[in-house]
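Fold sample X.
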Amino acid sequence: TRIDIRGSLKIGRDTFIDVNTVFEGDVVLEEGVIIGPNSFIKDAHISSGSEIYSNTVIESARVGQSCKIGPFARLRPGTNLNSGVKVGNFVEVKNSTFEENSQAYHLSYIGDALVGKEVNIGAGTITCNYDGRKKSKTNIKDKVFVGSNTSLVAPVTLNEKSVIGAGSVITKNVKRGSLALTRSKQ
């Protein structure tokens, strides 16, 4: 197996690193971490039992215990994932925190957001966090379900147990336990 270490790499017991992985800066891999092939990890901490699938880029981020990241995911600076989080293929996360057991599996951008516990973010969802002058936060509380192909226009809060219908553009706060849906007639 061929890997490149361009800095400091601390590895816990029972960790597996596949071929063509590059480590840069200060990287910590705790016990039982699995790193898939062709990944790039810079200035990051990957907690025990987490699995990083192939072709994933992680930079200045923290991954909690038993997370599953990738393939083809990108964790940008300021990302903090708590235990049991799943960030899937072609998902980009920047300057955001995911609480326990939340997931964004496919084709999404989550930037400048706080994502609560047990949140499901549907495929194609984006946080619209930049208005041309400043960045704003998206706050997604516990147990929210966000339907596929949704745009969350910050600043906005999705309160606990709310459901966002697929294809919606959300520009206002969503009340706890309610359904938010924005669509024009077909």
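Fold sample Y, listed below.
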Amino acid sequence: MTDLQKYSRFSRPKKREKKVSNSKEVWIYTRVSSKNQKENYSLEFQREESEKFAVEHGYQITQYFGNEYESASSDITRKEFQALINEVKKSPKKPFGILVYVISRFSRTGGSAISIVEDLVERIGVNLIEVVTGLDTSTDEDKLTIYSKLIEARKENQQRLKLTVPGMKKFVKSGQYLGKVPIGYDHWGPRVVDPAKRGVKQKLVINKTGLILRKAWEWKLQGEEDVEIIKKLDVLGVKITKQNISS
């Protein structure tokens, strides 16, 4: 062993080189926060603008992700978002980048989102590209701007919650039902999706399925097993899984 080799263990490890993809391939990710969200950038609009951007910059689109409404409150619970991240990690051929119309569509979780992007860029070698501005993480200046936008998106989300949560609490305390009604009921009122069931006053009305489900309660009280109840309901035209009959 040479003298130089003896001291090599005290030297600083070499800085890991950032992976850089020379590919012109890009993936597209689109998202809205709710099913009936009225935004200037709908799923279709986001996709069309991303496709135009790709053509203008000579990129080749090879995969699409998202195209769905998913809440911005948590990255972990967003199935389409997780599908995107998992696919980019395991894919043997990495794209140059992921196109998103605006950064807030990618995530509104702030620090958590920055951690995900940092991992994508530095470890995997895949960039995040904002279509509306042309910003991308391949340059340090743009990357810092994108990180700032992710933090700002988080702030906007928190501010929105401060404004909407008190109203939601007041709505529930007044005796109103918030969210999807249980199986067996029809929901009428000012906030329902179905235009035919919209009205000034909210009401929950038991429907045909609900009337049949009443029988399930009676059968349960008589000592019937869940498996038998499911079979009886199926004969009457109501299909219920074992998990749903339990809940």
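Sample Y note: DSSP finds nine helices and six strands in the chain.
Also: Strands lie at 25-32, 60-69, 97-100, 127-130, 185-188, 203-206.
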